[in-house]
Amino acid sequence: MDATAKLLRQPQQALDVGQLRADFPILKQKIHGKPLVYLDNAATTQKPQSVIDMFRCYYSEMNANIHRGVHTLSQRATQNYEEARTKVQHFINADSFKEIIFVRGTTEAINLVAQSYGRPKLKAGDEIIVTEMEHHSNIVPWQLLCGQTGATLKVIPINDSGELKLDNYKDLLNARTKIVSIAHVSNSLGTINPIKSIIDMAHAHDVPVLVDGAQGAPHLKVDVQDLDCDFYAFSGHKLFGPTGVGVLYGKEALLDAMPPYHGGGDMIKMVTFEKTLYNDLPYKFEAGTPHIAGVIALGTAIDYVSRVGLDSIVAHEHSLLSYATEAAREIPGLRLIGTASEKTSILSFVMEGIHPHDLGTILDHEGIAIRTGHHCAMPVMEHFGVPATARASIAMYNTHEDIDDLINGLKEAHKVLM
Amino acid sequence: MLDIKDLYQDIIIDHNRSPRNFGKLEHATRVAEGYNPLCGDRLTVYLNLDANIIKDIRFEGTGCAISVASASLMTDHLKSKTKAEAEEIFQNFHTLLTKDNEQPEGEMLGKLSALSGVKEYPVRVKCATLCWHTLHSALNGKETIVSTE
Q1: Four-point Cα dihedral A319, A325, A330, A336, nearest 10
Q2: Structural contact between residues B114 and B12, judged by C-beta atoms closer than 8 angstroms
């Protein structure tokens, strides 16, 4: 049974969306004189007041560099920074805080693994498996690695519903496979991949798996021990936290064996010109002064999500997705892109005779924010034979009225352009 | 308050639905390609340039309504113009779309003025100007694919 189905079976508190919306100050804005209808959450999410306040709190009460000082402010900053690490650890049920590395985002996390795990290990003829539905951030780092090592990239194809063709995956896994890197959830299609079985299959071949959790962590319960993934990456800004912060989870044994990614302060125990000793995990991978305020605010965002209840959030998003999908199917000339049986709250579509950018402009005029373009997933666009799609993506503060506004906006676009 | 019809005027909708001078030009003397990969607008401009006069001009491609309408209006406007005139019109059109205080002469632009609404949507300027940059490339015999991104 997939993660969403499991969550939906549990009794959950229905979200009080009205109350929730009051926590997000940006939602009060008017765009072109209309109330903002923010449906671009897969690109980035809005922030609750508590996260916004944490920046003011950090810079007015505890700002100091971490891990280095004996004075009070430094200790306060360090304590809050490390508390955030513990929050992340528990959020994804990692075994140890040493397995939580703070990076700039999912993209940096994947680059770290490619360079620090992949580069020393891979040689000419080795293979890396990704999928056709990946975001560019889970394609290009591996292409760079292939260029550096002579390894080749193998791609699990998708079908026309936007689901992975797992038979092809079976065929691709072989003795030359050195890593599998796969999205938990597709940012362009909304497809939830069966990553547990994908991981099991890879492990049967002694192949580690990196999961791109940028769209997974905000919309599904992630338990890295249950998944048994070797690496899991996600971004703070897609989880109601700030930009510039993300997380790489890695199994301790793997991270321990990997050389550092960036060199500098804090990731060392001792430096001489003859020899440098690297720091223990997780600090070995955190060179330089991090985005301290950002990490602490990410902790605040996790607190917020936990307080609202991820299971309630998932149920609410699922309900809106069903509502939106049904309504979209009624619009003449609208073709859904991404119709997997297991999906999160992403609705990608094209409208016949209407270019997505014209759609986006007209919707913007109605105060509605969606994303139009290739969503950093050009191979997906190529698969479906479209230059771009329109994508509406739902989060906890969206309402049925937001979906109604979207549908009316699409009908308006039809009127204006056809 | 901006009206969406200021951008999507009837003439724009018409030229998008029924683009003029659409299709390949056999025996073109100049050809240039334009492509904005981030938004997917793509077109080819064909010229029959004879003694610096645009004897014929056609275009092919796919893209948003603004990019297609702009290309259609451009090709209509430029038939029988000289190369120098075409470049001047390009400059004026660019000013129309990007500069607040300078307003080019309406006469020179004719129906192209219908695209003046794009100024209020800066992110769409590249859609409207792709065909003109591509034309410029064709007029000057450049080989590389043009982009306005």
Answers
A1: 180
A2: yes
- Concerning whether A229 is annotated as a catalytic residue, the answer is no
Give Cβ neighbours of residue A160 (< 8 Å, ≥ 6 apart): A384
Chain A, nearest residue to B63 by Cα: A355
Q: Return the bridge partners of A156, or none.
A: A131
Distance CA A234, CA A248 (A): 7
Cα separation of A309 and B117, whole Å?
A: 46
CB contact under 8 A, B42 and A357: no
pLDDT of the residue at A2: 53
Q: Could A388 and B16 be called an inter-chain contact, meaning their C-beta atoms sit closer than 8 Å? A: no
Per the DSSP assignment, residues forming a β-bridge with A246 are A103, A235
Does B2 have pLDDT greater than 80?
A: no
Testing the interface with A: which of B6, B64, B67 to mutate, by most A Cβ within 10 A? B64
Work out the minimum CA distance from A31 to partner chain B, whole angstroms.
Answer: 11
* Average pLDDT, integer, range B112-136: 93
Alpha-carbon span A278 to A259, nearest angstrom: 9
How far is the CA of A350 from the CAs of A158, A229, A353, A363, A389, in angstroms?
Answer: 19, 34, 9, 14, 5
The complex scores an ipTM of 0.89
Cα B137 from Cα A306, distance rounded (Å): 56
What gap in Å lies between CA B133 and CA B131, rounded to an integer?
Answer: 6
The region of weakest confidence among A411-415, B1-5, B135-139 is B1-5
Beta-bridge mates of residue A50: none
Would you place residue A273 in the very low, low, confident or very high pLDDT band (cuts 50, 70, 90)? very high
Residue A12 pLDDT exceeds 90: no
Contact check, Cβ <8 Å, A357/B2: no
CA distance B114 to B98: 14
Chain B closest-CA separation from residue A106 CA (Å) = 21
| Residue A29: Cβ-neighbour burial (10 angstroms; 0-12, 13-18, 19+) | exposed
Closest CA to A293 of A360, A244, A255: A244
DSSP notation for A292-350: HHHHHHHHHHHHHHHHH-HHHHHHHHHHHHHHHHHHHHTSTTEEEE---SSB-SEEEEE
pLDDT higher than threshold 60 for residue A11: no
Q: Are A21 and A398 spatial neighbours (Cβ–Cβ below 8 Å)?
A: no
Which single residue is written with the structure tokens 């309900």? A319
Task: Output the CA angle B63-A135-A221, nearest 5 degrees.
Answer: 130
Task: Name the maximum alpha-carbon separation found in chain A.
Answer: 72
For residues B111-128, average pLDDT = 91
Q: What is the pTM of this model?
A: 0.93
DSSP symbols for A105-123: SHHHHHHHIIIIIIHHH--
Residue B73 contacts residue B66 (beta carbons within 8 Å): no
